[in-house]
Known about the structure:
10 helices, mainly alpha, globular, 317 residues
Amino acid sequence: MSEASISTMPVHHxxxxxxxxxxxxxxxxxxxxxxxxxxxxxxxxxGPVSMLAVERATLSMIEIAALAAVxxxxxxxxxxxxxxxIGVAAVGIAIAIVSLRGGPTTTLLVQAESLPSxxxxxxxxxxxxxxxxxxxxxxxxxxxxxxxxxxDEGRPDESNGVTLRDTIASEIPFVRCMLSGLSCPRFTRxxxxxxxxxxxxxxxxxxxxxxxxxxxxxxxxxxxxxxCFAVAAAFYIAAGRAQIMFPARTAFWxxxxxxxxxxxxxxxxxxxxxxxxxxxxxxxTSGFLRVLPVTYVAxxxxxxxxxxxxxxxxxxx
Length: 317
């Protein structure tokens, strides 16, 4: 990778571009609302959208990962090369919407035999959702390469839109090697340090904001809508701030921070559960337990991608 100067000047899109954007996530939302619900519907009518609440978790995981990849590809075809990682954002929004059909984490808290074990299970589920979103990243990149056609290696003009160099997949070594015409990336020491700092800052700010936004008194109910807002706002703000402090070429490092936040949140909740005095099972020992894994990852991924649309990099080799 060559060094690049990065600008944070926002790009202005036409009405047609924005209509295609809304059509892309709208189609993804409709498909997940219908077909995705078949795989995610909990056995308890009041249960949350979680792999811990479905009868056949393994089969559901496979179905959701495949559906995420397919819908990311479809969304990329609809929106074109105007927005980088549009497939990832569309799938994230669609999964977040269908998660609202389920209940909050209350059911899991009540049914849990051990709160620390529940926290570890939720963290593991978060890793699955991250892998599902990664499938969306890869599918979106391959569609851009093989269906829409790659633009020039340099910064494209307004009519061409974004290129593979602007996508998350362009910084994933194995995936980039699979994309024809692209060499495997090799991070320099400075780029690696900058990327890790970017991911760390994004994760730290997001965790702090989620704890603030999703916090509630013991008497307040856990609400999915509040959780979605908390995660979306937290990652949008955090990714934007991290880009200003430690500019990165793509949303790769911001995207990586999503799984870091999810796992760290539940690990912290587990530690708090070990130290807290016994309370009612419906009262979470940590504000982080108010958020489901699907919300952390799906909404978080959409948030960081949209934050990058606000401050996209401009590369001059």
